[in-house]
């Protein structure tokens, strides 16, 4: 089935007979990606409708979004907020669901075409799997889904003939470089990384880094978890694993290069030695917009890169001796099985603890490394075994916090 065949024909949208409206479900609508996605949709109200919005605890923003975009469903995973939302939306037809089950039920709803998977962390896995089972196109921001259970997700997407359209800027860049190259062999991909706020720093500096400093990313404004992952370079490690699954690559085919300006979003090198790069200003609205409009390109008013200003685009090797999270992620990528799932779980616990000022910046690496050593390795896990490995890794990593 082609992607287009999944979209409905809607003669009455914006009075524009013949237009195709893509019906979008935004899982994680109150986050950095979710709110930017709503800006993209608002700018193209003739092309997109919003069918589902979900949040974890931010009921106020969810209510505001619901009143503006009028979805069929809203879901709040924090069940204590259910009544507040129900009351606030009582004069509308919007149905309110709650809890993890609410997410699953909404994901299986028939009346949408594309799920924007923009929940942060492991919590995004189950609803995304449910949407794949329901045959929906996935615009994937939540990289943790592929890190935790990439083999199962990709296998299921193939079985259900479901397209996974990357929203992560690097993977969107690679995806865009590959348009028209379906029959050609990729020699390798080059994932670019800004290097984060501590580029060039050494452990004697990093040991004293505090939460607020780590949350200052030089080029991108993002949610707290991914901002810390960018500062530790774990984000690039997670992206290597994400790329392996999205583009069916071996670990040797995935290279990381530091590119502090974040103008080249990633590159593909083909077997003839030619390299294609996708460029643009660092703005997540562009990859979100591309995933929604794919395979078309649709005009936007986003700011353009200016070649008339003096610019330098520079590249350097990542320092994986200092930023050991990237080395640990490479180890997990090479080992495969449940190791990336263990890495991810330990990282989520460690980053959350760092954000609460309970552990130091370098303790994050220590916690992940010890958890990877502790939790039993499984070469070919079932989905249940991934869930179990995640749970065990979380419990063990949390036990290290009092160290
Ligand atoms: P945010 O923290 O800004 O937003 C996360 C969203 O998920 C919010 O809507 C939040 O609800 C919801 N959420 C949080 N925890 C849970 C939970 N346990 N169950 C259900 N929903 C939950 O994250 P980002 O938007 O920055 O990132 C989202 C995903 O996209 C991540 O996987 C990230 O790696 C990826 N990504 C993000 C980029 C960015 O620029 N931000 C770039 C590339 C990828 P609430 O607001 O109520 O807490
Ligand atoms: Mg990225």
Task: Describe the overall structure.
- The N terminus is likely disordered.
- Strands 1, 2, 3, 4, 5, 6, 7 and 8 form an 8-stranded mixed β-sheet that branches.
- The chain folds into 3 domains: 161 residues, Rossmann fold (3-Layer(aba) Sandwich); 115 residues, no CATH class; 68 residues, RNA polymerase sigma factor, region 2, helix turn helix motif (Rna Polymerase Sigma Factor, Chain: A, Orthogonal Bundle).
- A hairpin with a 4-residue loop joins strand 11 and strand 12.
- The chain has 16 helices and 12 strands.
- It has 403 residues and is α/β, with parallel strands linked by helices.
- Helices cover 43% and strands 15% of the residues.
- The longest helix is centred in the C-terminal third of the chain and has 17 residues.
- The site of magnesium ion has 4 residues, from helix 7.
């Amino acid at each position: 089935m082609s992607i287009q065949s999944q979209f409905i024909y809607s003669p009455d949208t914006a009075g524009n007979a013949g237009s195709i409206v893509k019906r979008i479900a935004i899982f994680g609508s109150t986050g950095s990606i979710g709110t930017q996605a709503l800006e993209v949709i608002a700018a193209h109200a003739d092309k997109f409708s919003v069918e589902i919005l979900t949040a974890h605890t931010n009921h106020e923003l969810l209510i505001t979004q619901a009143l503006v975009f009028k979805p069929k469903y809203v879901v709040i995973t924090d069940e204590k907020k259910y009544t507040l939302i129900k009351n606030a939306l009582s004069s509308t037809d919007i149905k309110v669901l709650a809890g993890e089950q609410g997410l699953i039920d909404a994901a299986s709803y028939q009346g949408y075409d594309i799920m924007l998977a923009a929940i942060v962390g492991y919590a995004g896995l189950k609803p995304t799997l449910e949407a794949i089972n329901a045959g929906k196109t996935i615009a994937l921001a939540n990289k943790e889904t592929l890190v935790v259970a990439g083999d199962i997700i990709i296998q299921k997407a193939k079985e259900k003939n479901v397209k996974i359209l990357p929203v992560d800027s690097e993977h969107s860049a690679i995806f865009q470089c590959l348009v028209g190259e379906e029959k050609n062999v990729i020699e390798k991909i080059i994932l670019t990384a800004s290097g984060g706020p501590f580029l060039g720093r050494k452990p004697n500096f990093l040991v004293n880094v505090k939460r607020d400093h780590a949350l200052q990313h030089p080029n991108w404004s993002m949610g707290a978890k991914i901002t810390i992952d960018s500062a530790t370079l774990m984000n690039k490690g997670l992206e290597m694993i994400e790329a392996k699954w999205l583009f069916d690559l071996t670990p040797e085919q995935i290279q990381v290069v530091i590119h502090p300006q974040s103008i080249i979003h990633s590159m593909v090198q083909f077997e003839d030695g030619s390299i294609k790069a996708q460029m643009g200003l660092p703005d997540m609205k562009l990859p979100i917009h591309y995933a929604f409009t794919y395979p078309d390109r649709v005009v936007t008013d986003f700011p353009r890169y200016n070649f008339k200003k003096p610019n330098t685009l520079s590249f350097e090797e990542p320092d994986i001796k200092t930023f050991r999270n990237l080395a640990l992620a490479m180890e997990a990528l090479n080992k495969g099985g449940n190791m990336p799932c263990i890495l991810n779980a330990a990282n989520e616990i460690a980053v959350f603890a760092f954000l609460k000022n309970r552990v130091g910046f370098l303790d994050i690496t220590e916690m992940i490394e010890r958890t990877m050593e502790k939790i039993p390795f499984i070469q070919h896990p079932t989905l249940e075994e991934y869930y179990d490995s995640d749970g065990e890794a979380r419990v063990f990593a949390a036990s290290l916090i009092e160290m």
